[in-house]
């Protein structure tokens, strides 16, 4: 990545961090006004004409702030699926509406369970082996431990199909790309929340005193923070590789996405757990806020496939 893009991403990260720090719950209209819903929408359709690399920056900041919004389902997944459709006026209209924020779209993969941001969506795109289908559905909210995400079960009513969209190219390849995007986006989120937990823990260890000295001076605390840092460093390398592979549509994008998702999301649970322990008794209280990150990390670990599933997939390469 050139210095020019690094500088742009740093500026985007700073702006996103400032906006998300104001309020944990961010409305869809705010995301649209910031231009985030149309990052990957072509400029002539009202978007920014950016790539998944820029989307990944926002996903990471979402995790760092443990932000509650519809960005994952109605922007990241929606734009990815619609961009994968064959060119048509219908596709362009939908992309324009996503960029403008006038239409909230949710994406459901079979078996339509735990669909992000389906509740309140204007349109639901159901991804099948042959294409993308729109039909009458019932959306049932699915409460989970993580209160920063809104998930639902989508059930087709069994009526006639309202609309069928065809993929641009081989359907299975396009579906795989969309799933790789989803996995990588969640890995970015987990990386951001891991870094937030390490920063909070280090700051706390500097001011919390025991036996007339900061707890950060104790060897056990130093080692625990070092372990957190190492895990995050490995996550950063894997996530960066996955983001680049997905953005550039590299042949091994699926492998890199699987590695990032399986490691970064598992590491985030461990990092958040260590953060809670190192905060002592206050870490287990509602006031500390660490529980929010731990619950989000736990959901990220299983969303769009568990680490075990991805590791089995990776292991097949060596059989």
UniProtKB/TrEMBL annotation:
GO MF terms, alphabetically ordered: acyl-CoA dehydrogenase activity; flavin adenine dinucleotide binding
Pfam families documented for this protein: Acyl-CoA_dh_1 (PF00441), Acyl-CoA_dh_N (PF02771)
Stretches assigned to the Acyl-CoA dehydrogenase/oxidase N-terminal domain: 24-101
UniProt key word Oxidoreductase: yes
The keyword Oxidoreductase appears for this protein: yes
Residue span(s) of domain Acyl-CoA dehydrogenase/oxidase C-terminal: 183-318
Keywords: FAD, Flavoprotein, Oxidoreductase
Cofactor(s) for this UniProt protein: FAD
Family that this chain belongs to: Belongs to the acyl-CoA dehydrogenase family.
Protein name from the UniProt record: Acyl-CoA dehydrogenase
Organism whose genome encodes this protein: Mycolicibacterium sphagni
Lineage: Bacteria, Bacillati, Actinomycetota, Actinomycetes, Mycobacteriales
């Amino acid at each position: 990545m050139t210095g020019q893009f690094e500088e742009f991403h740093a500026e985007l990260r700073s702006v996103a961090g400032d906006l998300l720090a104001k309020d944990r719950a961010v409305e869809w209209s705010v995301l649209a006004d910031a231009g985030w819903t149309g990052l990957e929408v072509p400029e002539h359709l009202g978007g920014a004409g950016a790539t998944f690399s820029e989307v990944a920056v926002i996903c990471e900041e979402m995790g760092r702030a443990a932000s509650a919004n519809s960005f994952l389902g109605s922007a990241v997944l929606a734009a990815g699926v619609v961009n994968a459709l064959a060119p048509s006026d219908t596709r362009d209209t939908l992309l324009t509406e996503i960029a403008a924020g006038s239409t909230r779209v949710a994406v459901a993969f079979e078996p339509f369970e735990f669909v992000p941001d389906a509740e309140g969506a204007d349109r639901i795109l159901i991804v099948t082996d042959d294409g993308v289908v729109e039909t009458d559905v019932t959306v049932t909210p699915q409460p989970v431990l993580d209160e920063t995400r809104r998930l639902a079960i989508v059930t087709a009513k069994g009526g006639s199909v309202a609309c069928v969209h065809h993929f641009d190219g081989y359907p299975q390849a396009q579906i795989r790309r969309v799933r790789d995007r989803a996995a990588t986006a969640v890995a970015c989120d987990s990386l951001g929340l891991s870094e937030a937990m390490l920063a909070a823990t280090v700051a706390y260890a500097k001011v919390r005193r025991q036996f007339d000295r900061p707890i950060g001076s104790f060897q056990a605390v130093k080692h625990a923070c070092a372990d957190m840092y190492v895990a995050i460093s490995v996550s950063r390398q894997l996530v960066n590789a996955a983001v680049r592979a997905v953005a550039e549509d590299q042949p091994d994008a699926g492998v890199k996405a699987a590695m990032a998702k399986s490691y970064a999301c598992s590491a985030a649970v461990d990092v958040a757990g260590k953060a809670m322990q190192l905060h002592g008794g206050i870490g287990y209280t509602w006031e500390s806020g660490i529980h929010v990150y731990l619950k989000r990390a736990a959901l990220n670990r299983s969303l769009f496939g568990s680490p075990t599933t991805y590791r089995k997939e990776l292991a097949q390469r060596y059989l």
